[in-house]
Every structure is written in structure tokens, then in C-alpha cells.
């Protein structure tokens, strides 16, 4: 028994082994998806920077949940104002101390990178930050 490839309208499948149509489609899909996700992240970032809102990284959000840190609108507003002050001074990566919490903030992107209780921060060494602000 022999199997012969059959094409449609003169188009024959590529059996030379030089390309895998499925693999090429999968690869292009992944590249397209990555591009769309990056574009959306840039739009979200631009929107946050333009509106002055503070963004929370996935890591920071997970830390808030796991450490039981809850912030009300007043706290969010105070932290946002602190980031405004840091930005005015040219800060890039900052430690923000607010009540019983400590946050590492990427000032230029207005993004909280991580969050912890002040007790967890005691004795910790923070590297790659250029400023600190004590809010409350």
C-alpha cells in the first residue's frame, strides 16, 4: 500500500521537511499574542502615568493578599501623593513607609513593586533604591 499526497487546486502539501505549517502557525500565533499583550501593557502603563494613578504589580498584589494588608482610599491617595513628591525630586526606585507598611515603588512608572509590613521590613536591606519617604 502506498500513500500519495493529494493537493487542492494544484497546491500540494509541503512534505520536504523544511517547514511545519502547524509549527509555523503556532509560532506566529505566539509572537502575535506576545505583541498584543505588550501593546496592552504599554497602553495600561501610559494610562496610569497620564492619570497619575498608582499601579500595583502582580507581585505586590500577591504580597498584599498573603500578608493581609488592606489599604483604603485615603491610604492610596497618600501613597500617590508621596510618589508625586518623589517624582518631583527625580527619584527612580523608592522605599515608601506608610503607617505599618513598607512599599518599594518604581516612581517613573508609578508602580508598586512589592509590599510588606513594617515588622517584615525591620532588619531588611533594600538595594537599588535611591530614596525613601516616610508618609505616616
Structure, described:
The chain is of the alpha/beta class and 136 residues long. It has 2 domains: 1-51, no CATH class; 53-134, no CATH class. 44% of the residues lie in helices and 18% in strands. The chain contains 4 helices and 5 strands. The chain has helices at residues 21-51, 58-66, 73-88, 118-121, and strands at residues 55-56, 93-98, 101-106, 111-117, 131-134. It has a 5-stranded mixed beta sheet with strand order 1-4-3-2-5.
How would the blueprint of this fold be written?
Elements: H1 21-51, E1 55-56, H2 58-66, H3 73-88, E2 93-98, E3 101-106, E4 111-117, H4 118-121, E5 131-134
Parallel strand pairs: 1-4, 2-5
Antiparallel strand pairs: 2-3, 3-4
Amino acid at each position: 500500500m502506498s500513500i500519495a499526497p493529494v493537493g487542492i487546486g494544484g497546491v500540494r502539501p509541503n512534505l520536504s521537511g523544511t517547514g511545519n505549517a502547524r509549527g509555523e502557525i503556532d509560532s506566529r500565533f505566539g509572537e502575535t499574542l506576545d505583541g498584543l499583550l505588550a501593546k496592552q501593557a504599554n497602553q495600561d502603563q501610559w494610562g496610569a502615568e497620564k492619570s497619575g494613578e498608582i499601579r500595583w504589580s502582580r507581585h505586590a498584589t500577591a504580597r498584599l493578599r498573603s500578608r493581609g494588608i488592606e489599604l483604603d482610599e485615603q491610604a492610596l491617595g497618600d501613597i500617590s501623593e508621596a510618589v508625586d513628591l518623589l517624582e518631583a525630586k527625580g527619584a527612580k526606585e523608592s522605599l515608601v513607609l506608610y503607617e505599618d507598611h513598607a512599599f518599594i515603588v518604581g516612581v517613573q512608572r508609578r508602580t508598586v513593586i512589592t509590599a510588606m509590613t513594617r515588622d517584615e521590613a525591620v532588619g531588611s536591606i533594600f538595594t537599588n533604591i535611591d530614596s525613601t519617604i516616610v508618609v505616616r
